Amino acid sequence: MIDLSHYKEVNKDGITAAVVNDGKVLLLKRIWLPFMSFPGIWTFITGGRKEGEEYLDAAYREIEEETKIERKHLKLIARIDNVMLYDPVWKRKKWRNAFFVFSSSKTEVKLDMENRNYRWASMDEIANGKNYTNIFADRVLIEKKIKDVL
C-alpha cells in the first residue's frame, strides 16, 4: 500500500469501474485539463454520484456517458464499497469511492469529451504499468479483484 499521509483527504462521492471483455480490461486515456481528475493518464472509468443516486446506478450511468456501452451490455461481477483513490498527477488529494467490475458483451467504445483514447489491456500490462497509471492506495486488492473475475 502506498503512503498517502501527506495527501489531503477530500470528500468526493463517486465510483470507479473496471469493464472486462474476453480477458482484457478497458482503459481510458483522460484528456489533459488541469481541473479534470486524472488528467492525461490511462485509467478505469471514474465519476461522481448525483444526489440520491445509488452507487451501482452511478456506475452504469458513468460507463454509458464515457463509453456509450449501455447497461444492457453489462453484467456486474464484483464490488468493493470503499476503496481509497489518490491523484497521481497533482499529488495533493485522496478520497474514497465505490469500485465495480463489470463484464461487457460489447467491445466498441465511443468516447465522451473527458477522454481522448481507449484500449483493451491485459492484466499483465496493467500490473506492469504499461500505459496505465495506478490510482488506488491498495492496488494489489484492485488487481486481485479483477484477476479473480477474468
Descriptive report:
- This protein starts with 7 loop residues before the first strand and ends with a helix.
- The longest helix is centred in the middle third of the chain and has 13 residues, at 55-67.
- A hairpin with a 6-residue loop joins strand 6 and strand 7.
- It has a single domain (8-149), classed as Nucleoside Triphosphate Pyrophosphohydrolase, CATH 3.90.79.
- The protein is 19% helix and 37% strand.
- With 150 residues, the protein is α+β, with helices and mostly antiparallel strands.
- The mean pLDDT is 94.
Describe this protein with a few key phrases.
single chain; 150 residues; alpha+beta; Nucleoside Triphosphate Pyrophosphohydrolase; 8-stranded mixed beta sheet; 3 helices; globular
CATH topology: Nucleoside Triphosphate Pyrophosphohydrolase
| Total domain units | 1
Strand content: 35-45%
Low-pLDDT regions: none
Globular, elongated, flat, extended or rod-shaped: what is the shape? globular
What would the average pLDDT be, to the nearest integer?
A: 94
Q: What characterizes the major β-sheet? A: 8 strands, mixed
Under CATH at level 1, the class stands as Alpha Beta
**What series of H and E elements makes up the topology?**
EEEEEHEEEHH
Q: What percent of the residues sit in helical stretches (DSSP H or I)? A: 10-25%
Which structural category do the helix and sheet elements fall into? Answer: alpha+beta
Determine Rg (CA atoms, Å): 14 Å
Give me a quick take on this structure.
By secondary structure, the chain is α+β, with helices and mostly antiparallel strands. The chain has 3 helices and 8 strands, in the order E-E-E-E-E-H-E-E-E-H-H. The chain has helices at 55-67, 123-127, 139-149, and strands at residues 8-9, 14-21, 24-30, 42-43, 45-48, 74-86, 93-104, 115-121.
